[in-house]
C-alpha cells in the first residue's frame, strides 16, 4: 500500500513579501530522496519549514536544511510512508508580516518481489506450481514469459496463471525446465520489474560406463577399477552388485566417488574366480537404472614401478611409471581428485601437465606445483588383452601458513591468559615466541609458559605489571622457509554500567527487571549481572544475580504496597563495573483474589471431580474455596469448604440424570473473590452387565476373578460333603479340633456341660459377593461328636 496525499500549493501575497516553492506536485517511492526549494521575494528576516504535523523541521540524518537570506532548500533522504503529508515554508519580514507556501508529498510502494526462490524444483510428470510473490500499490499486473514468449492460457495449454500470480505447469517434464520470467507492472505509474526463476525438473537416473568389458591377470595381486558415469536430478546414489548381492567395502572391494557423477569400484588382488558380470546400479527418488560390466581374467600388463613423490610448492615434480606386459602396454595418467586424464604428447589446458613416454615407461611432469595438486594420481597400462592400474601419492611441501585470525587478547594483572598460534605446514614447523627482541624459552619464565603441539603453540602469560602488556611474536620455521605473526596482549577493564533499566510484571511480591547490556565489556566476557534492591529509606541492599548473561531478572520475596529502589552492575573476570542509575518501583497492595478457573471430570459412581486452578491470589495465600452446588430444579444450595492448598473438590453423592449448577469463590485474608459459575450433567445410572463389569478389566484381573470363583466353588463342594456325607476337608478339621478338646480336662468338662464350639461360614449372595450380614450356617459340635446345623434368619 502507499500513502496518498493531495497537495494544495498556495501563495499568500503581501505588499512587499512573496514566497513560492519550486515544485507543485511530488510523488516519491519508498526509499527515494527529494529536495524542495523555497524562494522569497522581498526582505525576509526568517525563512522556516514545517512538517505535516505542524512542527518546525530541524536538521537530522534524514532531513537536511540549507537556508540563505531569501532561499531555503529542504532535502528528504530515504523517504518512508510516514513522511507523506503537507510541508509548509513560512517567511516573515521585519514588520512581522508572514507569508507561506505549502506542498503535499505523496509516498507509494514500488514493485517488490518477496523471497522468490530460484531455482524451484519439481518431479518429472507432476503438477508444478512456480511461486512468484510480488507486491505494490496499487496491485500489480503479472505476466509470465518462457523462452522470450508470453505465456497465455490457450486451449489445451499446459500452462495456467493462478489467482495468486503463481504459474501452474501440468505434467511437468524435462522439456519444461529452464528460466521463467515473472514480470509485474503498475500501469498507473508506468512501473515494471521482473524476476527470472529457474525451474528444475527431477528426472530418473541416466547411467553410462567408460568401458563395459575389462581384462585382468590372475594371481598378480592386481586391481581393476570399474567406472560408472551417472546423471539425473537429484544426483543418483550408486551401488555395485554381483550375483544378486550388493558389494560392501572390504579388503578386496574399494569404492570411490568423484566429481562429474563418476563412481568407481576397485577390485584388488584379482583371482580367476573374480571374473564375470558386475552390475552398477544408480537410484534416486525419480527412478533406477542398471548397467552390467564384464571382467575377463587372464595374463595382462603389469606396472612394476610407481613411487610416491614429494615436491615443493612452486617447483616441478616428475612422476615415473614403468609397466611390463605382452604386448607392451600403452601408459596413461589420471588425476583422482577430478578424474582429468593426461596422455602422451598433449599438454593440459593450463600448460602445467605434460606426459612423455616410450618402451613401457611414462613420465608425468608437473610445472609450478600447487597445493591443489596434492593427492592421488593413477597410472594405467593398457594393451589389447587388458590393463593394469596403480596409484601413487603426490605430497606437497610448503612454507608455514598461519591459521589464526584472532590476534588481540585481553587480561589484567595476575590473571593468566593463553595466546594461541596455529600453523599449517609441511613438513611440520618449529615454533617459538619472541617478546620485543628476546626469545621466550620453551621452559618459560617466572610469569610465562609455552605449551606446544603439532601445528599449535600456546603462550601462557600471567601479567604482573604494565610492562607485560604489549606485542608478542610467533615464529614458525621449517626447511622450506619462515613466517611471523604478531599478537597483542591488551589490558582489560571492568564493564561499563548497564542502562535503560525497566520494571515490568510488578505484583504484590514479584517484579521483573529488564535492562540493556553495557556498551563495553572491558575486553573480557561478562560473567553475570548483579541486581541490588532495597526498600526506600533502608540502608541494606539485597543482592540478586542474573542467570548467566541474561538481561532479565525476577525479584521475589517483596512486600506488598512497598516502594523499592533497584540498580544493576555488570561483573566480568576483572571485577564489578559501575552501577546503573537507580530506579524506583512500588509493589501492588494486597487485595481480594481473582476468581478461580474451573474444569470438571467425572468421578467414580455418583461423584464429580471439580478441578480448581488458582489465579492471582491478590498477594496473600488462598485460605479456602467456597463451593456451592445444587440441581437446576432446586433452590437450596449445598456448601462445601475446600482448603486453599487443594487443587480439586469432590462433589458427592449426586443424583443420576441431573444437571447441576456450581458457584465457586476463593477467599484470602483480604476477602472473597468474584464467583466463578460452572455447570455439569450427571448421566443416567449405568446398567451393570457382565460385559460392562469385565470390559474395563485387564487379562490379569479376569484370571484372578476366575481363580477366586474356582476357590469359592471348591469351598461350597466341601461344605456339601460335610453335611451330606460327613467327609471332606471341613470334616477333618472339625474332628481334629474335637479330639484335641476332649483330651484336655478343662475343655472336656465344658463339652460335657453342653457347651458347643461354633463354626460359622458365610453364605453367598446372588451376585457372587460375600455377605457380611449375620446370615450364616451355624455348626454345633457336642461332646458326643454329633454335629447339628441350622440356618439363622435365612431370607428367601
Automatic annotation (TrEMBL):
Keyword Disulfide bond: yes
UniProt keyword annotations, A-Z: Cell adhesion, Cell membrane, Disulfide bond, Glycoprotein, Immunoglobulin domain, Membrane, Phosphoprotein, Repeat, Signal, Transmembrane, Transmembrane helix
SUPFAM superfamilies: Fibronectin type III, Immunoglobulin
Residues covered by the Fibronectin type-III domain: 497-590, 592-687
Name of the protein in its database record: Neural cell adhesion molecule 2
Gene3D superfamilies attached to this UniProt entry: Immunoglobulins
Region forming the signal peptide: 1-22
PANTHER family given in the database record: CTX-RELATED TYPE I TRANSMEMBRANE PROTEIN, NEURAL CELL ADHESION MOLECULE 2
Superkingdom, taxonomy of origin: Eukaryota
PROSITE patterns noted in UniProt: FN3, IG_LIKE
InterPro entries for the chain: FN3_dom, FN3_sf, Ig-like_dom, Ig-like_dom_sf, Ig-like_fold, Ig_I-set, Ig_sub, Ig_sub2
Tagged with keyword Membrane: yes
Subcellular compartments: Cell membrane
Protein's membrane topology: Single-pass type I membrane protein
Principal subcellular localization: membrane
Domain Ig-like: 9-104, 109-193, 205-296, 301-395, 400-490
Membrane-crossing residue ranges in chain numbering: 693-716
SMART domains registered for this protein in UniProt: FN3, IG, IGc2
CC per GO annotation: plasma membrane
Amino acid at each position: 500500500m502507499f500513502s496518498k496525499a493531495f497537495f494544495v500549493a498556495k501563495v499568500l501575497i503581501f505588499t512587499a513579501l512573496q514566497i513560492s516553492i519550486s515544485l507543485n506536485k511530488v510523488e516519491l517511492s519508498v526509499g527515494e530522496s527529494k529536495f524542495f526549494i523555497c524562494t522569497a521575494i522581498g526582505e525576509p528576516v526568517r525563512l522556516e519549514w514545517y512538517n505535516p504535523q505542524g512542527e518546525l523541521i530541524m536538521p537530522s540524518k534524514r532531513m537536511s536544511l540549507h537556508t540563505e537570506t531569501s532561499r531555503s532548500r529542504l532535502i528528504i533522504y530515504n523517504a518512508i510512508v510516514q513522511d507523506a503529508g503537507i510541508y509548509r515554508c513560512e517567511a516573515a519580514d521585519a514588520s512581522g508580516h508572514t507569508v507561506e507556501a505549502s506542498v503535499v508529498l505523496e509516498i507509494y510502494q514500488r514493485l517488490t518481489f518477496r523471497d522468490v526462490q530460484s531455482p524451484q524444483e519439481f518431479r518429472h510428470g507432476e503438477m508444478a506450481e512456480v511461486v512468484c510473490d510480488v507486491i505494490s500499490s496499487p496491485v500489480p499486473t503479472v505476466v509470465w514469459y518462457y523462452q522470450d514468449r508470453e505465456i497465455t492460457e490457450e486451449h489445451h495449454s499446459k500452462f495456467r496463471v493462478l489467482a495468486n500470480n503463481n504459474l501452474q505447469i501440468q505434467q511437468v517434464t524435462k522439456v519444461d525446465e529452464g528460466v521463467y520470467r515473472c514480470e509485474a507492472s503498475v500501469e498507473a505509474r508506468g512501473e515494471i520489474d521482473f524476476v527470472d526463476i529457474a525451474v528444475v525438473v527431477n528426472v530418473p537416473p541416466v547411467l553410462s560406463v567408460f568401458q563395459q568389458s575389462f581384462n585382468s591377470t590372475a594371481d598378480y595381486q592386481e586391481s581393476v577399477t570399474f567406472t560408472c558415469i551417472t546423471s539425473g536430478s537429484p544426483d543418483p546414489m550408486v551401488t555395485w552388485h554381483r550375483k544378486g548381492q550388493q558389494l560392501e567395502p572390504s579388503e578386496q572391494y574399494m569404492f570411490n566417488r568423484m566429481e562429474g557423477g563418476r563412481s568407481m569400484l576397485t577390485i584388488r588382488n584379482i583371482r580367476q574366480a573374480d571374473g564375470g558380470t558386475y552390475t552398477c546400479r544408480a537410484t534416486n527418488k525419480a527412478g533406477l537404472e542398471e548397467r552390467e560390466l564384464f571382467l575377463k581374467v587372464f595374463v595382462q600388463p603389469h606396472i612394476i614401478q610407481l613411487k610416491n613423490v614429494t615436491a615443493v610448492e612452486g617447483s616441478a615434480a616428475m612422476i615415473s611409471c614403468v609397466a611390463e606386459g605382452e604386448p607392451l602396454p600403452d601408459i596413461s595418467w589420471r588425476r583422482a581428485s577430478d578424474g582429468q586424464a593426461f596422455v602422451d604428447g598433449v599438454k593440459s589446458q593450463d600448460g602445467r601437465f605434460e606426459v612423455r613416454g616410450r618402451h613401457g615407461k611414462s613420465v608425468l611432469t608437473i610445472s609450478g606445483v600447487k597445493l591443489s595438486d596434492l593427492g592421488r594420481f593413477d597410472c594405467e597400462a593398457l594393451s589389447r588383452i587388458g590393463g593394469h592400474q596403480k596409484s601413487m601419492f603426490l605430497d606437497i611441501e610448503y612454507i608455514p601458513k598461519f591459521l589464526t585470525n584472532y590476534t588481540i587478547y585481553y587480561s589484567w594483572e595476575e590473571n593468566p591468559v593463553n595466546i594461541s598460534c596455529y600453523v599449517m605446514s609441511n613438513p611440520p614447523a618449529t615454533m617459538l615466541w619472541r617478546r620485543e627482541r628476546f626469545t621466550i624459552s620453551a621452559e618459560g619464565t617466572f610469569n610465562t609458559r609455552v605449551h606446544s603441539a603439532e601445528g599449535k603453540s600456546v603462550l601462557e602469560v600471567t601479567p604482573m605489571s604494565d610492562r607485560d602488556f604489549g606485542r608478542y611474536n610467533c615464529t614458525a620455521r621449517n626447511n622450506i622457509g619462515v613466517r611471523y605473526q604478531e599478537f597483542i596482549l591488551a589490558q582489560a577493564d571492568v564493564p561499563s554500567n548497564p542502562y535503560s533499566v525497566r520494571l515490568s510484571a510488578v505484583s504484590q511480591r514479584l517484579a521483573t527487571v529488564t535492562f540493556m547490556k553495557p556498551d563495553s565489556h572491558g575486553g573480557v566476557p561478562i560473567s553475570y549481572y548483579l541486581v541490588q534492591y532495597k526498600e526506600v529509606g533502608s540502608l541494606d541492599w539485597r543482592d540478586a544475580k542474573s542467570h548467566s548473561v541474561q538481561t532479565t531478572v525476577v525479584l521475589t520475596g517483596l512486600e506488598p504496597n512497598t516502594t523499592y529502589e533497584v540498580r544493576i552492575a555488570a561483573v566480568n573476570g576483572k571485577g564489578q563495573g559501575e552501577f546503573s542509575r537507580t530506579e524506583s518501583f512500588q509493589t501492588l497492595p494486597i487485595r481480594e483474589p481473582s476468581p478461580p478457573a474451573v474444569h470438571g471430570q467425572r468421578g467414580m459412581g455418583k461423584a464429580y471431580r471439580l478441578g480448581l486452578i488458582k489465579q492471582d491470589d491478590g498477594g496473600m495465600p488462598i485460605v479456602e474455596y467456597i463451593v456451592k452446588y445444587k440441581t437446576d430444579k432446586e433452590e437450596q444450595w449445598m456448601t462445601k469448604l475446600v482448603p486453599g492448598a487443594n487443587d480439586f473438590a469432590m462433589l458427592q453423592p449426586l443424583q443420576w440424570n441431573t444437571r447441576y449448577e456450581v458457584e465457586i469463590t476463593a477467599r484470602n485474608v483480604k476477602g472473597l473473590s468474584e464467583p466463578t459459575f460452572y455447570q455439569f450433567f450427571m448421566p443416567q445410572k449405568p446398567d451393570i452387565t457382565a460385559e460392562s463389569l469385565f470390559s474395563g478389566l485387564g487379562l490379569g484381573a479376569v484370571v484372578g476373578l476366575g481363580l477366586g470363583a474356582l476357590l469359592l466353588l471348591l469351598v461350597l463342594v466341601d461344605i456339601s460333603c460335610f453335611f451330606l456325607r460327613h467327609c471332606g476337608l471341613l470334616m477333618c478339621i472339625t474332628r481334629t479340633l474335637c479330639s484335641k478338646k476332649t483330651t484336655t480336662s478343662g475343655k472336656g468338662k465344658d463339652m460335657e456341660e453342653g457347651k458347643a464350639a461354633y463354626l460359622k461360614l458365610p453364605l453367598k449372595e446372588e451376585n457372587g459377593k460375600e455377605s457380611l450380614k449375620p446370615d450364616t450356617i451355624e455348626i454345633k459340635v457336642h461332646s458326643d461328636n454329633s454335629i447339628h446345623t441350622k440356618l439363622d434368619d435365612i431370607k428367601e
